[in-house]
Here is the input.
Amino acid sequence: MARTKPLVLTALALFGVLAASTAAAADDRPADKPASVKPTFNAPHDQAADPSLLAAHDQVVGDWVDVAPGDNGIAYVACPSGEVPTGGGGQTSAFRIFFTDSYPSGGSWVVRGTNTGSSTESIRATAVCTTP
Here is the structure.
């Protein structure tokens, strides 16, 4: 018990020094500089952002695919006609099934998973699609 009191006092003193030095460092900034600056984006005048030029992004979800214990499974989801995947991923039905791959393939998104459990589990692919 006698050793803990000096350790606690040392820790409190160190904390006080760190807090004081942090506050002093924050006060060292020039008066014309704010404490935090939010980033901004200004489009060039000749390239004004036109919301009608932005493509829609659809999220599509594939069917569940059963994966037997100790086996690997593949699930995919196709984008709507005329669209391509810009990103994707998947879902699992339990903690004992793990994704080993997740990638685009043509107009689809593919996920592969390994079931390390002792019962059948499921995976399914999801994709974010847009017009090219």
